[in-house]
Please model this.
Amino acid sequence: MKSNKITIHDISSALNIDSSTVSRALNDSPRVSKKTKEKIAKKAAELGYQRNSLASNLRTNRTNTIGVIVPRISRNFFSTVIAGIEETAYEAGFNVVICQSLESIDREKKLIETLLANRVDGILISISMETTSYEHLQSYYDHGSPIVFYDRPCHFHNCTAVSIDDYKASFDATEHLIQSGRKNIFHFSGPQEIELYQNRKRGYKDALKKHNIEVNEDYCHESGLSEKEGIKAAKKIMNLKNIDAIFSANDTAAIGAMKYLKTQGIRIPEDIAVVGFNNDPISEVIEPSLTTVNQPDFKMGKIAATILLGQIKNKKADTKDQSIVLNSELIIRNSSIN
Amino acid sequence: MKSNKITIHDISSALNIDSSTVSRALNDSPRVSKKTKEKIAKKAAELGYQRNSLASNLRTNRTNTIGVIVPRISRNFFSTVIAGIEETAYEAGFNVVICQSLESIDREKKLIETLLANRVDGILISISMETTSYEHLQSYYDHGSPIVFYDRPCHFHNCTAVSIDDYKASFDATEHLIQSGRKNIFHFSGPQEIELYQNRKRGYKDALKKHNIEVNEDYCHESGLSEKEGIKAAKKIMNLKNIDAIFSANDTAAIGAMKYLKTQGIRIPEDIAVVGFNNDPISEVIEPSLTTVNQPDFKMGKIAATILLGQIKNKKADTKDQSIVLNSELIIRNSSIN
DNA sequence: CTGTTAGCGCATTCAG
DNA sequence: CTGAATGCGCTAACAG
Model:
């Protein structure tokens, strides 16, 4: 019914202590005696006081909230990253606002504006697949609040980016396929405007080169990362006839492809070996023959959040780490290709 | 660098128009002439003015934000509900704060407190599996802001709940199994303190009764809804020996069970037919023999959000709809059990 | 249609 | 250690 209209003034007058002291006590300022603090805390509880964070935020110009922009929360990798971010933020007393760009640059722009308008103290962002320039981040950056990129690396001023070494992971994955006897390796890739996909493709190509395998551009399928796209790519593979392995930038696409290939009587991994990127647990359950580049998801969230919170605290310190690279791990699920 | 310190006063003094008029103009009040509005809009753009919503929120005691509590964002059903909520809210100019309870009542409590502290204008909640009483919602409710339940029905004051008819859907699903010749139907259920699971179990039992099949309590497995639990239940089924069908309250559990059963040489659906609840798209792809109760997810989000926004607008109107029931649909994926 | 006045609830100077 | 005074930026009476 009636909103809890208890303010610091109510407890101030009830106790005959000035509201400024009450404010300090409630914020656990060292400048208030323990005794007074206790008295105030007790009264506050008694009256059912709840701080009005809107007022507090206005006054301090801080919201104790970080914004997280994620391409899509339903993707397991991202929801696990979010779990890591939340754990870290909650422990530090920060709130988390999660927004999904749905891989759309327009939507991403709007979200940034909204987060700016809501004065979040910092942003963690994994840019959308459509994002190739960062002007829309500029206004936020100018505002002075920190931005940390995760998963999909970016170069924007000297903002920190937390990611794995996509080049190396791709190189290793491709080399793994080569070492298990494959030569005609197809690659599912994404938009080359995005650094992540560039790096992965480079890793793929360089592994081929190292082993003196000719790079065939027809073997690279650039597209989105849905199961549907995986199926489309698989059809392309069927037409090529001689493909004996797939290195996919994404599990979902890989699963779609495998599903289709199986319907065509292809045995996996015997006929075509598959390595996917991103560790979706369904792949483990459903496609035990899918070898996977396992990315640190939860850990990535924790680390990215920790860095962001650090930057929020030392507003001044502009000595930001340029980039943090985490290790990934190749999980080989089916021994038959070893 | 410097935060955009442009306030309405800056544009007020630049134009020699009082700040209150500026405020009105910026809010598109009908009480300001079109001419003045244009002049103000132009100057605002020129100076790069951005409203400080913190101040606005403090003044109006509204945040134009709704809170969404969801058990787990990674579950496809929920992430699609969220998509529906977001679409509706964004169109209406509202922000959405998504929080996951992770099925924990403690966490749910904290989230409610946080949302209350952040003065969201309304809450959409699908209660956690641990939630059997609603005291923790009381403080929020007392505050006067509306709460709408979705998916998992609740009776809390006269708050609206949007859900499907779980009883009927379960009845139909079970009857479908019976009509395809099954008699020993196992049921994966959840905590019976939760209305949703009660309803589903009732539907299951009543369908059996209607067809004069004895209800065997040993055939009901009450537990969480993970794949792991599905496997556990499947082991129980193997011991029972005579089970020829499963009606699961959840796709994920059903998939886990199917996976295990297959490893045991059980053919699905020939030996054991399976119906799952919740429409996880992976089930369609991966387990084409899994028949599913298809719930309206996106639509549910849209409807729940629309109702909540309506209640936020007509603060006074306490004539809340008690409950909204949406239709579900049985999607039969494998014709062999018809 | 526009200006005047007065806070929203809190945190932070500056005094003591 | 505590009190008095001030204003964050905006909006909502109330006038005119």
